[in-house]
Each structure stands twice: as structure tokens, then as C-alpha cells.
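seq/struct pair 1
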Amino acid sequence: MNTPAFHKTLPSAEDIALARESGRVLSTVLKTRAETQQIDFHDEQGMTRTVALPTSALRLLLEVLTEIGQGNVVSIIPIHAELTTQEAADVLNVSRPFLVQLLEKGEMPFHKIGTHRRVRYQDVIDYKNRIDAERRKALDDLAAQAQELGMGY
């Protein structure tokens, strides 16, 4: 199985403007309850090709266009994808050695293919959500404690 590539090139100003306009048009099309939609594509020779797409795929496309329209880089990764340690570290925005330490401590499951560790994308996201929730709780506890002590926060 191919592992996903993480492209970090920011969209150009033209891409941002086009994504915003395309997203606006697509959002009007998606006000339907139909399970599929048809889109006409026009090539350089003037030929039109009609493609039927699941409405769910178009909703995902709208999310992608919205992010690009805000100047963000977008990667689409299947939930069941297996990531290398570097790819998983990139998702978490940590160094690869730090991620390897997390794996070895049992903070998230992994398996080896030969000598190489692989981590399921969903396990990386579950870890990220768990850590984010713990951080939010710690910040809430600190804010409550500061208020109790009258520290002006």
C-alpha cells in the first residue's frame, strides 16, 4: 500500500481566489438530498465529459476548497492508512525521535514491517484528540484555580 504524501506548499493567491469562488458555487449545488450529482468537465478541445459523483465526495471537495480558500494546505488521508514515523510526526507536528519515544512508551499502538514502524492514521488522530482534551482540562483547571486565588484571570 502506498503511504500518503504530505505536501506543504501553500496555495497561491490565484488558487485561493479560485477555491473561494468554486466553493461558493459548489455549496449552492449541494443543497440537495440527492445521493449523486453530475458534473460536466470541458477539455481543451471543447469536449464535454459528464461525471457522476457521490454527493458525499462533493461535500468533501467543498471542505477542501474552503480550507484552500483560507490559504491552508490540505492533505487527504484514508482513515485506515498506515503512516511512517515521519509522516505520523508531521501530523502531530512533533519530531520523529519524539514520536518514536511515544510509540516505545506505549502511548499509541504501532506495528513493524521488518525494522520499520508503522502507525495507523486513526491511532495518530485518536492520540492527538486525547492529548488535546487533556491540555484543555489542565488549562481549565489552572484558570479555575487562578480565579479562586483572585489572581485576576
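seq/struct pair 2
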Amino acid sequence: MQLAKRLEKLGTETAFAVSAAAAEWAKQGHRIYPFHLGDMNIPTPANIVEAMNKAIADGYTNYCPGAGILELREVLAHDVGSKRGVSYSPDQVSIQPGGKPVIGKFLSAVLNPGDEALYPNPGYPIYESQIEYLGGTAVPYGYIQNESGFALDMETLKRSITPKTRVLIYNNYQNPTGAQSSRQEMEEVAELAQRHNLWVLSDDAYYEIRYSGEPLSIVNIPGMMERTVILYTCSKRFAMTGWRCGAAIGPKEVIAAINKLNTNDESCTTHFIQRAMVEAIPGDTRAPDAIVQTLRERRDAAVSALNAIEGIEIAAPESAFYLFPNVTKVMERKGLTDVNVLMREALVHTDVSFCTRSHFGRPVPGEKDQYIRMAYSGVTVSEIQTGLSRLKEYFED
């Protein structure tokens, strides 16, 4: 018996493979400093937990509409639209079991076999995986490191557009680099999308995880709302990674297609979780603000500790909860050429677990510098200081 050949095109979220290695090391009696996975060890706000428990007690444990309950779609349409300076209606919102399903369903709705889709690389690996699984051609564009962090490589992005290009995936407030677009850069991306008549997926997973300033949205630029689907997730904003609740928000015709896919895939997103979100999204903002404050403290501790390591210089990103330090000089000092060897040896010598650039899309020809990705959402300030102190000793040895 053979499995379907299309499975050969399906990748995975490779950070979970790093998790497996860390878990195996922990079984041998080691304490792990888990910088590898963007999970959160911050409790979900109490009002959301209480609302969910009440919803279960009230009997909301049955099926509900595949598009999501109307009350939640109304709340999200107002919340997402008002924060981005645009207006959405409930029939432009499709509730999902997390943010990740939006990627595959959006692509299923707009991408034909043979079409090209532009995606950020390094970037969330599911972009690349889903494009290829659905028969599209995955075309990467990247970032350029500068004094403030990372900026889009606009020249590569422009050169990569061909008559076959149909989709642009855009992840402002980015995983893994923490990159964020200026208004000018965002307008350049919007101009390209409109000139070449591209569908856009705006991955807004970290839109609310901001340490300064107001977030920008590409849908606010004239001509973009009608061609853009927003990926929204509750996971980061409310520390709800395991609850699995998110949404696709965009043009009615795409959302109707995504709703059809909902019915075929999972019937509906868990009813009582949706009821809890009706309470959470317009509710007290103190708990989400406290989550961001906790993450800010962790960011500051991690940036300070990394900059204390000889050969590493990193700017403090103003969004998301990832650091993407360049470790080229560290590897030269240790005589290593494979960053994944550095990752494995660091785990053995320091108990610190992290990902590498190769976990975020296939490296493109010509890349010379070596990077690791460190998530600080699942480690306390004390763990950050201890773990990165141990990493400093190993990196400088």
C-alpha cells in the first residue's frame, strides 16, 4: 500500500522537531531553557477562562455555524476594522480553529496549480509547505539586516514577480526576524500588489504584540482591502496558544470560499471557545496589556544578555517575541560551518534550546551569514538570564 504522492510536498513546522530533541534531553535529567518554540507560559486571562466555563455550563457544547457564531463575527469585524481604520461586516469574517488554518484555506481559495506565490523567507515554514502542497510554486523573498533590525529586500521582491505570480504573503511584525515595515515600505508592497493584481495574505498574528507606537495595517492603504485577507489569531494577544481560535477576515467572495472549506474540514470551531471570545475581545484590556508588559521585560533581558556575547550585536525589535541574532562570528570562532551543529552542541553544553535559520524556509542560494532564532515567550526573566549566561560561556569558549 502506498500513500498519496502529494504528501511528499507537505512540510512541517520544524520547530516541533527541535522540541522533540529538547524533550529527549530533558528526559536524561537536564533542565531545558526553551527558547525554541513560540509558545507562551503566561496564563490565559481569568475573564476568558471564566467565560469559557460559563459557556460550557450553559450548554454551548454542540455544533454551531461553520462560519462561526454571529456574535463573535460581529465583535471581530468591529475590533479588527476599527483598529485598522477600515470597516468590515460579519460576513467578511470566518472563524477558524487557530490562525494557521487561514494559510491553507486562503491559498486553496485563490491559488491554482502552477501559480506562483511570494512568501517571506526566512518566515513561518507553513507558507512554503502549503503553497507547494496545493500545487503552487513557492517563490521566496527575504530581508536585509540593518542597524534597527531587518527590512524587506524590496529589490528581490520586485524581481521575483512574473506573469504567473498570483499571491503575496506579507507578515508584518514578523516571525522569525521581528521585522516591521515603515509606512513607506508598506506602501511599496501595496503598490506592487495592486500593479500586478495580486491577492495578499496579511499575517497579523503579532499585530497586538507591540512594545511602542501604533501598529500599521496594509488594508488601510487605498486599494488593498478588496484584495487582502487578514490572518487573525487569539493565540498571542490573549496567551491562548492551545485554545485554537482565530479568523480569516477579508473580501466576501474569499470568505465564502473559506467557509465552504470549514464545513469540509472541521465543521466548526469549538462553540464554547467562541462564546468565551465574545467576552474577551471587547473586554477589559488590562490583562492583554499585562501580557505585553511581561513580554517587554523578557525582550529587554534577552537583548541585553545576547549583546553581552562577543561577536553578537542585535537590535531590540518593537514587535512579536523573537530575536534573530547573527552568529556568523561565533561559528567562525568555534570552527563550525553548519549552524545546526551549533544548535545541537549548545543544547548538550548549556541546556539552551533554540532554532536556526533553516527552520524557517529553505535557505536561498547566496546566503552567507548564519542566524539562530530565540523565542522569549516561554521563558521567565530569571531563566533568560541564567540560560543566556550559560550560552555566553559556550559561545565565547
